[in-house]
Amino acid sequence: xxxxxxxxGDAAGAPDLPGRRDAxxxxxxAPIFAALGWDTAGVERATRFVASLPxxxxxYVPKFFTTREWRTVRLLADYVxxxxxxxxxxxxxxxPEFVDFMMLDETTGDDGRLAMRGGLAWLDTExxxxxxxxxxxxxxxxxxxxxxxxxxxxxxxxxxxxxxxFFTRFRDAIASxxxxxxxxxxxxxxxxxxxxxxxNGCPETATQKLGVSYAEYDAALAAQRGT
Amino acid sequence: xQVKSRSSEYDVCIxxxxxxxxxxxxxxTKAGAKVVMLEAGAExxxxxxxxxxxxxxxxxxxxxxxxxxxxGEFDACDGGWDIEDExxxxxxxxxxxxxRARMLGGRTNHWGxxxxxxxxxxxxGGTKDGMSADWPISYSDVAPYxxxxxxxxxxxxxxxxxxxxxxxxxxxxxxxxCYELLVKKAADKLAVKCIPSRLSILTQAKPGRQACHYCGxxxxxxxxxxxxxSPDVLIAPALATGNLxxxxxxxxxxxxxxxxxxxxxxxxxxxxxxxxxxxxxKVVVLAASACxxxxxxxxxxxxxxxxxxxxxxxxxxxxxxDTTGTDVAGFIPAMADHVPHNEDGVGGMHVYMPWWxxxxxxxxxxxxxxxxxxxxxxxxxxxLGGIQNYPGGGGYGTQLxxxxxxxxxAQIGFSGRGEMLPNENxxxxxxxxxxxxxxxxVLRFHWEFTDHEYNQIRHMQQTFRALxxxxxxxxxxxxxxxxxxxxxxxGGQIIHELGCTQMGSDPNKSVLDANCRAHDxxxxxxxxxxxxxxxxxxNPTWTILALAWRTSDYITQQRKAxxx
Lengths: 227, 564
Prior knowledge:
heterodimer; A: 227 residues; mainly alpha; 10 helices; disordered N terminus; B: 564 residues; alpha/beta; FAD/NAD(P)-binding domain; seven-stranded mixed beta sheet; 18% strand
């Protein structure tokens, strides 16, 4: 997972990840390829490649989060929802960008904004206490030690309640951002939101799984009516 | 203040363009009357302005709600409980929230299309249990209008032959969603009557309106006019007669009165210019919503009517009720690991539970119906929140991602909607000091529920929890206590305010007569939720429509007879 690479210290600015460099190279070379003549397959390949690259950190300037918070948010987002064989990660779906946008929306409110900032600060403080460095500066294993203590509210110790409250809120924000994206819809296999004039009930595979059937339903209604 | 009057006199001035106003405009213009309609909001037609089929991610806010769009940014209705420049006040100790729609079509752009007829008992509550007054009319007076509305507007449902849940002229109902089959099974086990829902959504085409295409987004307004909203179904045909003049952004202030004590028209504020204007009309029909119409009457003070127009009984603003409501949702393990399929259906439940018990054997006098929701809804802003409450307990990473997939759509919820009895401590009046942006005195609300409502809500909670348990599910929230009102929604929260200009046969105890005409003023009518004597365990829209059409027919008869 590229996005989980250790970031040395707290240096500001986007790390120049290999993926990003490759993307710039492809884009930079595009006119030359074009001059040589693109074939359809080549264009599609290149387009897919560019689209599959992690979003370049420098491309988006957060409106709510500070530069330092932003690095932590992006790291943490991909701990919440990493890439796997079915879909991309939270950052692939630009979940942090959406969270940043919604932080300044009226739905979040001042309390919500404060809780987010304070929670991120708590995470760094906790990390410094334990490892002598910020959350972003810690190793993957160190970060997971902290997350393991705050990600399961029922298992967490009372001493971790602040972190639990923050992470619960953060996880909801990332889930909302990820699953309301096109990538998220595909991941959930949501196939609605279409013009579907021939809809005629759910498929048998779905009714069977629930142990119900339309025949049984019709019979129950008929019995109820005494017909 | 300068008042500009439109030179022409209309036959009828209608204030409001929702179910009551739209229906009145339709019936009166078809009968040849020259009608002017005042609407406080802007022009809006779902057929032109709907956000239907826009995916959540196509919007920067992905469907998040806002003050002006409490049901999400894609929701058709421009309105809310808090509207800029239009305050209201609530007496200390009362909890009440007043929803206003500010657009052509009013709340018909918002509602759930649940289109239930009131039954014979609902008009005669007093006779049945003595707990409220009887209406001055019966089911048989309204039934012909329910039939006409079913034909004109369209409603699907099933014939069940239930005495107090009368059948209509139904279009075929859609098949239930698979989780609704599960609900039916559980309801049958608990002897809770569960039948196909009754919604004003076309399962078969009508002239100029397509059949439903099952995108599940009625709330956004339907671009194919497959559901009912006043602008596309009533106001557009009324405009097509050439008899309707529509004035939008017109905030009605008062009904004006002549020396003979009859209504001469309506004064309104042009919200664009802030200027006072006046329309003259031979007949005035208020259809601004139960509370807003009461406000207009109370503000229509003159030397002849110092307490406000139509208020010699002192009953304007009284008898205010809202539907009672509470919700319970549960996680249903059988629904985990869903089979991917399109479950959108119509914009609402495909099955529901009408009131099925005998109140004589219960500790509350009036019933409720149950609405059903859940399943594979469109992931929007807020999707999949609260994962820590599912069996995985939260977490992060690969395991969490698997849990989101596993538990997406594995939820069923029930909403109870019940009859509140009118009481003398629930009413609205003019606030003595507060005015809105245009200087119009605002309403002050007083509100109180009694044990009639609390006991009913407790019964809802227990029933919903039993249904969820029967399906093998678990409810996260504990049973609310008496101190928490058993989870009752605050007054106004269900957006079914009724009363305030109630009809009755005694002019000393009611505002309107049996034709919804003011006892005090023979060319003044009310055609919204105001005339209702009582609620019922049904949503009010279908009855607002029926009463408005009935009142319009009466106006037409009286006009023909030269009496108006």
